[in-house]
Amino acid sequence: MKAWKVGGAVRDALLGRPDSDVDWVVTGATPEAMRAAGYVPVGRDFPVFLHPLTKQEYALARTERKTAPGYHGFVFHADPGVTLEEDLQRRDLTINAMAQDETGRIIDPYGGQHDLQARVLRHVSPAFAEDPVRILRVARFAARFVDFEVAPETHALMQRMVSAGEVDALVAERVWQELSRGLMEAQPSRMFDVLQHSGALARLMPELQPAWVSTEPAAIRWRAAIDLAAQQALPLPARFAVVAMGLSRPGQVALPDNSLAALSAWCERWRIPGESREVAELALRECDAVCSRAATDAEQRVQLLDRCDAWRRSERFELLLQACECIAHAEDSGAERWSSPSFARWRLARARGAGVDAGAVAKRAAAQGLRGPQIGYAVHDARVLAVAEHLYDEIND
C-alpha cells in the first residue's frame, strides 16, 4: 500500500501558488485494509477515506466506465491492481494529472509539467468527453489561470460534447457549484468566454448568451464590470448581481418586462441560492435609480430604501451598492447618463433613516389616534425628515 499526493496540490506547488487542499491516491490497498489502518470511509460512489489524524482525503486508485449520459453515468472500479498511471489517466487536464511521492519526486505520465510551462489547459485523454462537468471545470480554470489558454483540441472536444447533448444532462447543483467558483476567480469573464466558444453558454444560460456575444458598447462595458467585481474582491452575491445585469441591456432607462422573468427561470433551473438571487433581483430593479445622475430628493431616496427593505436588510443593501458601483464605474467611460455617483450618500441616507427610532415614532403616532397604515406613514415621514436634513447638509458643504 502506497499513498501519492495528487491533483491541485501538486500543480499549485509547481506554480508557486499558495497551498491548495491536499488529496491523496492510494495504490495496492483494499477498503478493508484502509479501515484496518484507522481510515474513516466517506465515499458513497467510490472508496474515499479520511486520514485518522490529518482528516485529508485518501481515495483508492480507480478506473471508471461510462454507462449513461451526464455526471452520474459512471461505474467506478477500484482494486489493488489499479495503477497510479491508470488513475491519473481518468483526470480532466494534464496539469491536474500529476502525482508526487514521499521523496518529492513528480510522476507525470501525461505531460502536465510541459503544459504548465506552456500555459496550456489540455485534456488528458478522450475519456474527458464522458463527463460534461469538465467543460465547466475548464472554463473555471481559465478564469483562475488568466495567462493559460485552452488547447485547440480541447476546445474542439468540448464543442463536440455540447453538440452531442452531454451538457443537457448536467445536474443543477454541479452547474452552480462550478459557476459560483468561477465567479470568485481572478477574471470571471474568461469562464463565460470559454463556455461561449464551446457552445455551452447558449445551452446552460440562453438568457445571458445574447448579451455576451453583443458588440454594443454597453454590453462590452458590462462584461468589464464582471471582472471589476473580481478586482474589488466582492462577495459572491454582488458578483452574481453584476452578471445578472446582462439580462437587461446595460444602461437601459426602463427595465424590460422579461428581465426578472428570465432571472427567475435561470435561478430556478440552477437552484441559485436565495441571497444571490435576491441581490440580483434588486440590481435589475434598482441599479438604474441608484446610479442615476438625476438629483433625488429625500422622499425618493427613502422610497428606494423602502423598496429594498434596507432598514432591516442592511447587509443585502450594501451588496446591491457594491454591484451597482461596478456597473457605474464600468459605464463611466461611456454612456453620458451614467456618472460616478457618490455611493457614500446612499450609505449615509440609509444610516440616517435607520437612526430613526421607529418604535418611538409609532408610539407617538398611536397616542395621537393613528392606526394601521397611518402609523407606517408616520415612520416613513420621520425617515424622510432625517434624510432631508442630511441632504441639506450636503447642499451647504
Can you describe what's shown?
It is a single chain. This protein has 397 residues and is an alpha+beta fold. It has 19 helices and eleven strands. The strands form three sheets. Strands 3-4-5-2-1-8-9 form a seven-stranded mixed β-sheet. Strands 6-7 form a two-stranded antiparallel ribbon. Strands 10-11 form a two-stranded parallel ribbon. A hairpin with a 6-residue loop joins strand 3 (40-41) and strand 4 (48-50). Helix 12 (236-244) crosses helix 16, helix 15 (298-307) crosses helix 19 (373-396) and helix 18 (358-367) crosses helix 19. The chain starts with a strand and ends with a helix.
Task: Provide the descriptors you would attach to this structure in a database record.
single chain; alpha+beta; Beta Polymerase, domain 2; Hydrophobic Seed Protein; 4 domains; two-stranded antiparallel sheet; 19 helices; elongated
How would you sum up this structure in a few lines?
This protein is of the alpha+beta class and 397 residues long. The chain has helices at residues 8-15, 31-36, 84-89, 112-118, 133-144, 152-163, 172-183, 189-198, 200-204, 209-213, 217-231, 236-244, 259-270, 274-291, 298-307, 314-331, 343-354, 358-367, 373-396; strands at 2-6, 23-27, 40-41, 48-50, 57-60, 62-66, 74-78, 99-100, 106-107, 120-121, 149-150.
